[in-house]
Each structure stands twice: as C-alpha cells, then as structure tokens.
Design a protein that fits this description.
This protein is of the alpha+beta class. The chain is built from 7 helices and 6 strands. The N and C termini lie far apart (55 Å).
Length: 225
C-alpha cells in the first residue's frame, strides 16, 4: 500500500524499529500483489489458468472434460484395413482381442489453451443468432489453422458442418457434446469429415481427391443432433 509514513503518528515517526515493523506489515498484507495475481490467473480469461479457466467454463456452461472413444484396437481382416487407420483400425491375429460388442470410452481433459479457445467460442455462441455466417465464424475460431470448415444449408430443415480435414476424437466430442457450436431450433445437424487428399473420388470431382488403391471411401455423415 505504501502509506506507512502518512498514517504513522508523529511520536513514533522517528523510531527506526517501529517504522520498519509497520513497513513489514504493510508489505506482508499488501493486497496489490494478490489482486494482480487474481486478475491474471482468474479474472482475465486471456491469461487465466487452471481453476481460473474452470470458473470461466462454468460461467459460459462448457466443461473441460469430454468423453471420447477408447484407444483399444480389435481383431480384423485385411478387407477392413486402410493406411490412415493402420494403428487404430483392425489388427491381425495375436495383436488385438475380438470385438466385445461395446465401444469402450475414456475421459479426455482439455489443456488450458484448448479449453480457453473453447470457452471463448462458447461465449460467442451464447450470443450467436445461429445464421450461417455466425456459425462459420465460430468454426473458424474453434478450428483456426486446421483447414477449411464451413456450414452447408441443405434445405428441408437440415444443415451440415463440413470439415476438409480429419477431426481428432476430442474435436468431434466438442462438436457433439459441448454445445459450443449451436444449432437453430428444430434443424437437423450432421457432421461430414472429408479430408480431400485422403478420400477416394473420380476426376469429375476435380483436383484433390485420390484414385483407386490410394484413397479411402467417404465414411458418411455423423448425426450431431
């Protein structure tokens, strides 16, 4: 606070011991440092860390933890093998167990930086008008630097989020679980992952798609309702 000399009564002003004791107390209980730290770690969403971001997450109603498919691989045959899923897809005999019939899951915890981005996107989503330009802006903010992604208005109360790059499991969980990307009322929503340089296609589509024996078939649209 730095106001010891202004508040110390005159009869003690010339006592080095008392003055130093008062200065020590002033330093020990000075709230300025704590307020600066509180501002940086909690109040300012751009610099908040740990529990500070958790507080912001509760304010905008988005959690840090997501449920994603487990990393367990299962036995499969050559017909199901694709190069992009060599490590996560079907495995040969002696390397993976049989499919149990139930998909295992695991909890994924977002890092501070990823969670901060999600919080900012959710805050913007809370005041979004759900028009295509607004949703496109949300997608660009959330997946900045990942590639092209956009909204398709399919008509008949249907829309689709299209990504020209493969989504990580936690990114797909954000889209389907966090409500960070809103959807208009009564409108059906799908998610299409179309990594152009990895998907099989014919010349009529144009440049970018891959030919036989080099690309995989499009896996279809994921229901995000």
């Amino acid at each position: 606070m730095g106001i010891v000399e202004d508040t110390l009564i005159s009869q003690y002003a010339n006592s080095p011991t008392i003055v130093q004791l008062c200065r020590n107390v002033d330093t020990y209980i000075n709230p300025d440092t704590d307020l600066d730290t509180f501002y940086d770690y909690v109040w300012n969403v751009m610099t908040a860390q740990g529990f500070g971001l958790d507080i912001w997450g509760r304010i905008v109603n988005v959690g840090r933890e997501l449920t994603i498919p487990g990393s367990t691989t299962y036995l499969g045959f050559d017909e199901a093998f694709t190069p992009p899923t060599a490590d996560t897809g079907p495995q040969p005999f002696g390397q993976a167990p049989f499919w149990t019939g139930t998909q295992d899951t695991e909890t994924f915890t977002l890092t501070d930086e990823a969670y901060r981005t999600l919080i900012l996107v959710k805050a913007l989503a809370n005041i979004s008008d759900c028009t295509a330009p607004s949703l496109n802006q949300l997608l660009q903010n959330l997946f900045q630097g990942r590639g092209r992604c956009y909204v398709n208005d399919l008509g008949d109360m249907q829309m689709r989020f299209t990504f020209e790059f493969p989504l990580q499991p936690f990114e797909l969980a954000i889209l389907t679980q966090s409500n960070a990307i809103p959807q208009p009322a009564a409108v059906g929503v799908g998610i299409a992952q179309i990594p152009i340089d990895e998907v099989f296609g014919f010349a009529e589509i144009g440049a970018g798609v891959t030919p036989f024996n080099q690309g995989t078939f499009f896996t279809g649209v994921i229901d995000a309702n």
